[in-house]
Amino acid sequence: RVGSLPCYRPPWSRLTAIDASSGEVAWETVLGISEALPPEKQLVGSTGSAGPIVTASSLVFVGATSDRRFRAFDGQTGRQLWEVTLESNVNANPMTYLGRDGKQYVAAVAGDTLVAFKLP
Fold this sequence. Notes:
Number of strands: 9
Strand order of the largest sheet: 3-4-5-6
Radius of gyration: 15 Å
Order of helices and strands: EEEEEEEEE
Largest sheet: 4 strands, antiparallel
Oligomer: single chain
Distance between the termini: 42 Å
Strand content: 35-45%
Number of helices: 0
């Protein structure tokens, strides 16, 4: 038994970048995993709600999956750069702000917790 999975062929979620000048797909990547599947078959996408945020340096942050992951992607290539597993799903758009220390932060709400990460 693998739980409650969609009844159509994966991927079940994608992160897609569109070139605003041409309207063409710039890149697309599977977004999320299903831990109910064997490890070698988990990269099938994981549905959720909310959208990504893109920084001025072209980092894409998204947590809109049901696998409790918050991820960063290269906005030019779609390559995943980083991920962290949280206690709850992120079901709201991430936000960014300038901290008192002059550094940029990216934050997201996961369940009833606000998590923040300082950018390098």
